[in-house]
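Dear colleagues,

As part of the handover before I leave the project, I'm documenting each prediction I ran so the next person doesn't have to rerun anything. This entry is a single chain, and its sequence is reproduced below.
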Amino acid sequence: MALLAVPGIAAYGQATPTATSSASSTPASIAGTSSGFHLPSSDGLWHYAIGASQIEQYGYFGPSNWTGTGSINGDLSYGSGSARAPFNMVYGGGVLFAESSNENTSTYQNLAVSQGLMAGKWSFGLTDSVSYLPQSPIAGFSGIPGVGDVGTTPVGSSPLGPAGGLLTYSGNRVGNTVSGSAERLITGKTSVSAMGDWSILHFLDGNADGYDTSDASGEAALNHRIDARDTVAVNAVYSLFTFGKAEGGINFVTRGVNGVYTRLLTHSIGLDISAGPQWLTSSDKTLIPNSLNAAVSVGLSYARGLSNAQLGYSRGVNSGYGVQYGGLSDTVTAAVGHGFGRRWQAGINAAYMHTQSITQSGVTPPPGLTIPLGGSFDTVFGGFQVTHQLSRSLSIYGSYAAQHQTYSANYTGTNAFNGTSQTLAIGITYAPRALRLGQF
């Protein structure tokens, strides 16, 4: 799938604080300029693409190990033209053919759908994003480096979902996030809103040694638009994090109250800030002590002509992403996309995350429960992609991605990736004209 110019490339953030608002100030969408696959727009058309790539990976299965993989992938998107009930859908999937007899052929699947409804002073939204992946996601909508979708994240969805975050070794896993929202106008400038979501991460392979997690959260907010550029809000958030029965049924809760400020600095630049206290309580206070933390989210976005960029910072408690039993993360993300005329596009993304376990080191776990306690992680990943249009429907691309992760000596788990991995890929994409096959 070739690189896309999308409505403000979504920052590749992980560990978004659970006690922050989902408000966004992304500027107006920029026009798609890529010759490849298109994310949903309001044209009521089906866009699709098929592609193939050769992927070479170094260091993932060992410090000096080279692995080659062939990929065949396909993508499909639809955006309705309805202003009252907008519907969007994106699917991406493929097969990864291992060239080594020591590795197995694997598949990846991603599906994201959203449905909105406007009814008088009310507006409603429902989204669902599900993924089936053979490894931790680090790039694009698929999460798989080298398949050609750097810079493609459906608007309104989490870039990496519950399967993202700390890097793990290979192992099939399913991630799913379902969310719903409702908002009612009280006056022309003031509204009240509510939002809820539920996420799961489930490891399918026994040798993956990952910890199944789920979390559910709810948010209530009061929103006020000061003028055409400025919006403020205050919200209250409650989140419950639980772990599978094999992990002893441990759970913890976060509660937060946040102030939110959103401003359109110019027609091209948007800023949103959310901050507030975040209280944590757990079912086992010896294992996970109660604490008070700060939940912060800051985002800066730019979109103009053929260029777009995002820079973000977030801090907050998360599930631990199947590697540990909850973590407190500080994350910095950046993404840039630019079209060089009609035939060349380039995109780059990068992220750094420091995660400290919320579990207490040096304590004795409950009987029969062996879990990693304590420890901290430093995670860095990023990549870039260059795409060239050969014809109206055909394009080629080259990409590079790298990931690096280290953890402290007192971490005792076995599922966390440790070291550096690099991925090189070249590919080709066929994306014919869109089709009108009907509307929802």
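The domain at 46-430 is CATH 2.40.160 (Porin). The chain has no helices and 18 strands.

All the best with the project,
I.
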